[in-house]
From TrEMBL, chain A:
Membrane topology of the entry: Multi-pass membrane protein
Entry's transmembrane regions: 37-58, 78-99, 120-140, 160-188, 200-227, 247-271, 283-305, 320-341, 353-377, 389-413, 425-446, 466-489
Family from the record: Belongs to the heme-copper respiratory oxidase family.
Domain Cytochrome oxidase subunit I profile: 25-529
Location(s), subcellular: Cell membrane; Membrane
Gene Ontology biological process: electron transport coupled proton transport; oxidative phosphorylation; respiratory electron transport chain
Molecular functions per Gene Ontology: cytochrome-c oxidase activity; heme binding; metal ion binding
Recorded metabolic or biological pathway in which this protein acts: Energy metabolism; oxidative phosphorylation
Protein name: Cytochrome c oxidase subunit 1
Pfam families the UniProt entry points to: COX1 (PF00115)
Phylogenetic lineage: Bacteria, Pseudomonadati, Pseudomonadota, Gammaproteobacteria, Oceanospirillales
Automatic annotation (TrEMBL), chain B:
PROSITE patterns per UniProt: COX2, COX2_CUA, COX2_TM, CYTC
Transmembrane helix among keywords: yes
Name listed for the protein in its UniProt record: Cytochrome c oxidase subunit 2
Enzyme class name: translocase
Domain Cytochrome oxidase subunit II copper A binding stretches: 115-252
EC number: 7.1.1.9
Amino acid sequence: MDTTLSPTVDTTEHGHGPAKGLGRWFFTTNHKDIGTLYLWFSLLMFLTGGCMALMIRAELFQPGLQLVQPEFFNQMTTMHGLIMVFGAVMPAFVGLANWMIPIMVGAPDMALPRMNNWSFWILPFAFSLMLSTLFMEGGGPNFGWTFYAPLSTTYAPPSVTFFIFAIHMMGFSSIMGAINIIATILNMRAPGMTMMKLPLFVWTWLITAFLLIAVMPVLAGVVTMMLMDIHFGTSFFNAAGGGDPVLFQHVFWFFGHPEVYIMILPAFGIVSEIIPTFARKKLFGYASMVYATSSIALLSFLVWAHHMFTVGLPLAGELFFMYATMLIAVPTGVKVFNWVATMFHGSMTFETPMLFALAFVVLFTIGGFSGLMLAIAPADFQYHDTYFVVAHFHYVLVPGAIFSIMAGAYYWLPKWTGHMLNERLGKAHFWLSFIGVNVTFFPMHFLGLAGMPRRIPDYALQFADFNAVASVGAFIFGLSQLLFVYNIISCIRSGERATDQVWEGAHGLEWTLPSPAPYHTFSQPPVIK
Amino acid sequence: MIKRVWLLPWIGLFVSLPANAAWEVNITPGATAIAREVYDLHMIIFWICVAIGVVVFGVMLWSIIHHRKSRGAEARNFHENTAVEILWTLIPFVILIAMAIPATATLIKMYDSTDADIDIQVTGYQWKWRYQYLGQDIDFFSSLSTPREQINNEAAKGENYLLEVDNPLVLPVGKKVRFLFTAADVIHSWWVPDLAVKKDAIPGFINESWAIPEEPGIYRGQCTELCGRDHGFMPIVVEVKPQAEFDQWLADTRSAAQAQAAAATEEWTLEQLMERGEQVYNTSCAACHQASGQGIPGAFPALAGSPMVTTDIDAHINIVLHGKAGTAMQAFGAQLNAVDLAAVITYERNAWGNDTGDSVNPQRITELQQ
Ligand code: HEM
Ligand SMILES: [Cu+2]
């Protein structure tokens, strides 16, 4: 895509910068400020959820109960999952969207800046509420991030009502964010920026935003039904009252499966920006990337019951969901092949963002393989709810979603701060994370295949060795994130000055702006030829 | 268990290591024809994935090594090729169809639970399994038998730590057993890898599955659906016996049940009831109310000093027999026999300083149960 830029950085006319003091952050409607808030929040949640993961892994280091009791263990797994999904990955993507989408499409801000402020500030309240349940009588949510009824209704601790309220708030936030992103992309593109010229990150986010709007109300619906069952005497999920516990799972996964794509499609966008930059070659198959992403999104609505193969579906249902799930491998394969083809005959260098992007491609593909195995229903009977599944979804979430977010952060930080990162530290962070992730999650495949169920606080002796290995890996991974935090802070405070283009092979509107990107950009739309 | 001499690492390389069951890396080939089919299916998909991985990662590695700037590689200028893109959409599609065919065949077999020789109803409870041999007059509970001291690291762990139960499910060899799954409280899931059976046990619903075990032996599994506090502590043990031994077991179990019924008509002393009550309490009640009777604040009420236990005896018997709707307190009337119920109620009324001096006779329970 050829982009030429008329001088757009207007420092005189609209020259007012950010407000001073704390008020700047509370009342800001600037997309860059809000992006920053989202990113810091998600980093905080990532570290919080990470500490919970380490607590789980510390308990599982050896057979026997040594550090925590089972009820607390269940609260930790549940909170870890909820925080990582709703607190770390989703807000990080929204943060990147806030920062980058207006810049990438040549817009001065998001379409609905005031709503943008709201959609962020709801989140800290939602998560404070959710975390506070840990200190309530009876403890916090202890029924898994999937909160299957009736464990989460009839048998739940009293704090479940607060959990439901927190979920509602997160849902509101996500829907508002999604509406804003769609409105920005559809209405605020610079002249000449046709849909098929949109950067892939923008494309993937557009599709993700539609997924969000489609499924967050479903999540709101299911928690509202829970609330009714708990407090208002209905029996949606209570068989004794004529209800159906399996209904819960259908509704939940109708939200839940698209949700896992919500956590990966923007990642596809990020690596599709980074790999061409460091391969110094245009992305291979731009159009097929767009079609593949859309097909994945559409298929994601048809496969929810592959999480429910053991629930007693009729044979025809089982076959339908098996075939539909296997089909997703086709567009996913196209994406992977396109990335590899982009590298093929490129001129590659391996700066930190590229390392994370390459690791993304390899490890996400491994997660995809185990996903394909899980799609085969008869085999899934042996894998379902074991550590094989834990290995699978961590391969797609940690080196998938999280690595891509880190890649994006390393890639765009110079644009945000005006300073280059410390490459040596970045590389150390990468290698420690890469080793840590694999040492943690690879053995979990073996544990699952050998028969270790998930969500258990203690296990049989034959699982001891791989569990010890996985725990060591988790601590390596966890501690190495401190390097990341340190690197970000020192990049904000100091570091070599970044050029406008930052990376030699970078193309796109964001690289035509000065580094750091000024507070107000594109008050005159750029013209794209 | 079969000890493996070869480890099969994920990456697809065979690496030889000394036999060591603790480094088990693969699913079991199993003890039924279906389990072996599932195992083969699993290996086929696994190897297909390995092959695709070798190709994709191979090209990627090649590019990383040869097409790097530091080696003077110049970027070429191609960025789409419709023919290639269509080709690598179609090839995976064909591979998937090749995988779907055997998967469909196996799935259809797994769903055919007709013509069973024995029907067993399996009911999940928090946190134990109940096995009812339909039409055979056999009905018992099976719960974890690993002592708490081992779990709390106060005693050395046994060989089958967390995978052992008081009353295993007993099956005859070579017969088609149909399982009917349901649950009394939350959703559980019954999984025995060697039989390749994993099915959810859902309150209010009945699910089916089946197996024909081919070899006598002991097969172990666990609950695989998060079902609350002791989800990690509800193992499954299946003992497969030759037909003659199985018949003998049926007869023995029936006469033991009759002896139980007879015991309920006898007079029991307070000491006898207390002694038996303590055992029953520790297996059935302590998971929630704790061995100390202190409960867990906010989750499970304390029994020590509770007016429910120290005052109205009828109310006490009633809640133990019928449970409390909408809470984790189950109806034990169907789970325990009259002697055990009488004993445990007596125990609760006298342990931890409750000292009411009351004793409940089994006959009283029998009357209430009718
Ligand atoms: C240091 C990195 C991490 C470690 C060591 C770790 C470890 C674990 C462990 C041990 C479990 C419990 C598995 C079970 O018993 O079922 C778990 C569950 C889970 N993790 Fe992670 N995890 C990490 C990062 C993440 C990230 C980044 C995400 C999401 C983006 C994530 C999402 C989840 C989810 C959704 C669950 C399921 C929770 C549930 O069972 O309800 N994890 N993790
Ligand atoms: Cu269970």
